[in-house]
Write a structure and sequence with these properties.
alpha/beta, Alkaline Phosphatase, subunit A, 3 domains, four-stranded antiparallel β-sheet, 27 helices, 50% helix, globular
Amino acid sequence: MVLHKTEIRIKVKKAFILIFFLQNPTKCNKIKKQNIDIKKILNKILDIIKKYYYILILALPFILIDLFTKILGYKIHFYGIMKLVPILFTLSWIFFVLGASLFYKKKIGKTIYIIFFILSFAIYTVNNIYYSMTGTFFDFSMVLLAGEGSEYFLDAIKDCNIWVYILMVPIIGSFILGLKFYPSRNKTNLKNVIKVFFAFLILHFIIPFLLGTPNEELTWSTWRNPRNIYMSFNDNNKSMMVSGIYEYTARNFYVTFIKAKKTTNEEDLIFLEEEYNKEETKETNKYTGKYKDNNLIIVQLEGIDNWLITEEDTPTLYKMMNNGINFTNHYSYYNGGGSTFNSEFAVNTGFITPLSYTQNAYTFNKNTFPYSLAHLFKNEGYTVNAFHMNTSEYYSRGVNYKNWGYDNYYGLVDLGTYKDDSYVLDRELILNETFKEKMFENEKFVNYIITYTNHMPFTTEKGNCRKLLKLDYLSENNLEELPKDYVYPEMTEESCARRQAKETDYMMELLLNELTERNLLDNTTIVVFTDHYLYTLSDQTILDKYKETDNNLINHTPFFIWHNNKDKKTIKEVTSQLNVLPTILNLYGIDYTSNYYIGTDALDTNYHGSVFFSDYSWYDGSIYVDGGVVTKGKEIDSLLLEDKNYYINYLIKKNDLTLKYNYFKQIKERQNKTI
């Protein structure tokens, strides 16, 4: 039976009446008494729906883009998917674009509609692929890292969460439907366009107030207050949840490219002044000056997670770790993009790039760091050089390392002697004769070595794993070229990661051999740490197997100090990259002001450390605190917890404000005036 349009209309109207009465019986009785014609009201509603139904159809693809992005970010336990404010933000943007486009002639209006969809679809794609890969939404500041990330773009697309692509189908389908229902308009009504614009501005002035009152006090709630998050834009994931995808994108762009630098805040300067005028707190201990005048080699390992250091896979690293000072409860900082640089920055300066910044490699390269590792060791007569595969332009290392006080930053790519990409193999750091001579050309040296081989993609289709399998086969069969019928074996990501880690271990073996041949082994201390956990694996079940993955303790990574199998010791206290520099300075007996760093000497007798993470959670070895409450470990006294929360916030504030105001430049200028 086919119903006529009139019959359908009557049935829909009756359904509306029934629903209304069932939901609002009291109101309906009042309406009856007042002789108000419900049928007439419902007819008007149906007329409006019938007249403007196309607007809902036009809006549908943009609603889905916002909704699906939040669904794909389901792991973000903050503010919920269906909260009113982000919905209002999203509807206001849709109202603005559709409202404006519909008051133009059809050709112009439809063009605006198509452009908005293309931009929205691109925003959806980029954000969700990036989130799938890194666990955080895209930030425009990442444009500055485009060169660094471009080579992994195709891998990111391939390894992305399949639901990102599945959900594209209803988005594109609804857009095609919208094009079909786009209305005709013979002329442009600029007055209405202006009205839409001003209505949009008014809405954007009002909506943020619905997020509540900002909290300006130094308390834990500062970092979870929705209004604070919206205003400061200090957390990409939380910002997305409080704003919706369109407001997030617009505000992201504004904060990154348009917003003027904040004017000096007097309270901030008072805080810094009081902080850096505190009395010295460090004390000598049995390790003070133990390695004085030794050469120093710092090795920053790319992605060598704890589970990769085994007697079988990485025997050299395994022996060194178990025959040196081993910090077994160490954590690396992972702020999303540029996490390798986060570690470099922390170890070299004693500060971590602010958690509210992601353009970390480019933001502070003009800051003054007179108390950096390089500057202090150069004051002691050392030459200080850095070595890596990549060019000096990568992460702006050429600029940053010079600013930190290094004599030189050397990249294998800059040498220009490689006909292929074999320079990505860690062994080349030692086998390359030019590099080798530069490392050991001075009697008293500090060498900062950054490895690379254990980097994504972990596949035999391409990448470092494929290169290593080729070398293995050629070596085992004494060949110079692969046979034409050679087929690369299929390997799991875990197997590839272990093979790549083995290459890094081989580099360490070559380094120790070189030190032995040059009679430098007994006079050289080697500090080894990993830049970040192996988050670039697409198969997350591997991490689930070997690590604690339900919180930020997944950032647990290796850190040890080795001096030719001497001073074997296990440190169980919590450490981070922020502890590395003050610990090294104490071991070398270099005078330093402890208050000029965020971390402290991890070998101090009274040391009891803690580490904070990018979402402001923290861990002290006993309890893990997220959002100001204990989520792992035994509950502690509320006042003690409040004190600890305050202390973490205090460290973050000191860190961020020091870098924001380039405060060491002011300290150094004052010191120079008094000389």
